[in-house]
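Moderator note: this is an archived Q&A kept for reference. The question asked for a predicted structure of one protein chain; the sequence and the answer are reproduced below.
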Amino acid sequence: MSILRSVVCGCGSYLPERIVTNAELAERVDTTDEWIVQRTGIHQRHIAADDEPTSVVGLKAAQAALADAGMDASEIDLIIVATATPDHTFPATATQIQAALGITEGAAFDLQAVCSGFVFALATADNFIKAGGARAALVIGAETFSRILDWEDRTTCVLFGDGAGAVVLKAEQGEGTLADRGVLATHIRSDGRYKNKLYVDGGAGSTKTVGFLRMEGKEVFRHAVLNLAETVRHTFAATGLSGNDIDWFVPHQANRRIIDATADKLGIAHDRVVVTVDRHGNTSAASIPLALAEAHRDGRIQPGQLVLIEAMGGGFTWGSALIRW
């Protein structure tokens, strides 16, 4: 059975120049490099400059992805930006990137699912393509989380960083089997009962302020391991695959202990897990495409390989996707 598949034909990323180490943070708040590394695996993170709003970091990742795909921006008819830190309440950051790329056709919009945003955006773009609503899409995860951090809260300010990653998806005919290249399966979930476990204490419709990120770390950790394993098991059940079939596992980069625990639950060997949290910190919706771009660029991820991605974010939201590269 011939079907349309969303094939990844380009991947790119951008990290701000400024790097903030754990030692530098230890000069600002009551923490140590040892404490941060032991609990999170993070050694450093990138912080955007004042003249680098989310649209700018997202644009640079998009340009890199288009160059990798060998495509002109005019070929793109859908842009989805996953972000929890848009430049403005409106217009959408995606429309600013669209304009900067010189694109005047098609649609561009933002999607908000916090750290799960890239998975949700990929699933959305895939459904547009499969339905014939788009032929080529830019899916971007872009964040400047440093703008919503309380830099006096040592439990959260050490965790996050800024950056952006992007993939180009293009419609191609497939045979409807797992041998097809492209997005093979997506599963996304939400449960709003857990809002107070991970949230920002402000917003245009409530406090009229931006607010700061607040988190109950132990609760988020517990739910993350359970929810992430659950969504991936849905993917395995739908495809008949197991952890042994996965060439590369590219999880959301929130915490090294969560990554390792999830891989263990799924039976995926640690040497098949792409890890960037040590150098990037948690970049929310940008973390998966940043990790994908790195592993694609250095040659780890090869055409034809099976790549599994998953994430959980505030809301709670969580989801996974299986891609034949």
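Archived answer notes: The longest helix spans residues 217-239.
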